[in-house]
C-alpha cells in the first residue's frame, strides 16, 4: 500500500475509534432507566397468535383495533371543513387503504409515482388522486399507455402537480394529443425553497394559461413540506 494511503487508513481508523468513544460517553450519560422485565401481555398474545398460525418468519402485523382508535382520534382533531387525504405511499396495501378509506369516509389519496397511480386507478377508480410530486412527462405518457379502457374515467380523478411553466406546457401538449382535460394543481413554495411557484408575475401568467385553455382545469394549490412539523416553533 502506498505511504499516503497507509497514513489515511490509520487516520480514518483513529477517527472511527475516537467517534465510538464519544458515542460511548454520550450513551453512558444519556442512558435511560432500566425497564427490563417480562414482556407485556399484549406482545405475548401476539406471539402466541403467530405461533398458532404457524408463522415463523418476520411478519408485519396490523392491529386493526389500535389502527381504528388512532383514526378516530385523528378525525376528532381535524378542523371543521378540512378534508383528510391519505398518503398512499405509506400504506402499500390495497386492503389497508380500503379499510382506512372506509373508516375515515374519504376518497382523497396522495400518490407519488406512476406504477402506484396506475394500480390505484385500476382498483379505486373513484379515488381523487393528488400527485405528491410532479411527474416527468414520460411517466405521464406511460400512465395513459398502461391505463385500461374500462378505467379511463379514473384519469379524470387525477390532480397533476405542476411546479414550473415548462412542465405545464408539456402537460398541455399531452392533454391536446390525448384529447383529454387535465386537472392541474400548482405546487407553491412554502418558504423553504424546495420547488414550486412563488407569488409574482410567473404565477400570474400560469394562472392565466390555466384559465384560457379548455384542456387545463385549475384544481388548487398544494404546499407540501414533510419536515415542517419538525421545525422549532420559533421559526
TrEMBL record:
Residues making up the signal peptide according to the UniProt record: none
Origin superkingdom: Bacteria
An annotated Gene Ontology molecular function: D-serine ammonia-lyase activity
GO biological process, one term: D-serine catabolic process
Residue span(s) of domain Alanine racemase N-terminal: 62-227
InterPro entries hit by this protein: Ala_racemase_N, D-amino_acid_metab_enzyme, PLP-binding_barrel
Coiled-coil stretches: none
Protein name: Alanine racemase
Organism lineage: Bacteria, Pseudomonadati, Pseudomonadota, Alphaproteobacteria, Hyphomonadales
Amino acid at each position: 500500500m502506498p505511504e499516503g494511503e497507509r497514513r489515511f487508513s490509520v487516520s480514518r481508523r483513529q477517527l472511527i475509534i475516537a467517534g465510538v468513544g464519544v458515542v460511548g460517553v454520550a450513551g453512558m450519560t444519556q442512558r435511560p432507566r432500566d425497564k427490563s422485565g417480562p414482556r407485556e401481555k399484549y406482545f405475548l398474545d401476539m406471539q402466541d397468535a403467530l405461533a398458532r398460525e404457524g408463522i415463523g418468519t418476520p411478519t408485519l402485523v396490523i392491529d386493526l383495533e389500535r389502527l381504528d382508535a388512532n383514526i378516530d382520534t385523528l378525525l376528532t382533531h381535524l378542523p371543521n371543513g378540512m378534508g383528510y387525504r391519505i398518503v398512499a405511499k405509506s400504506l402499500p396495501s390495497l386492503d389497508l387503504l380500503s379499510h382506512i378509506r372506509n373508516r375515515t369516509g374519504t376518497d382523497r389519496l396522495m400518490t407519488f409515482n406512476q406504477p402506484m397511480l396506475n394500480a390505484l386507478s385500476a382498483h379505486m377508480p373513484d379515488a381523487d388522486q393528488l400527485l405528491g410530486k410532479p411527474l416527468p412527462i414520460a411517466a405521464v405518457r406511460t400512465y395513459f399507455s398502461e391505463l385500461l379502457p374500462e378505467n379511463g374515467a379514473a384519469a379524470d380523478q387525477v390532480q397533476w402537480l405542476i411546479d414550473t411553466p415548462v412542465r405545464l406546457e408539456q402537460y398541455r401538449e399531452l392533454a391536446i394529443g390525448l384529447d383529454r382535460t387535465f386537472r392541474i394543481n400548482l405546487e407553491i413554495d412554502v418558504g423553504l425553497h424546495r420547488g414550486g411557484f412563488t407569488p409574482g408575475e410567473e404565477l400570474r401568467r400560469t394562472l392565466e394559461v390555466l384559465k384560457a385553455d379548455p384542456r387545463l382545469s385549475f384544481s388548487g394549490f398544494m404546499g407540501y413540506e414533510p419536515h415542517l412539523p419538525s421545525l422549532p416553533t420559533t421559526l
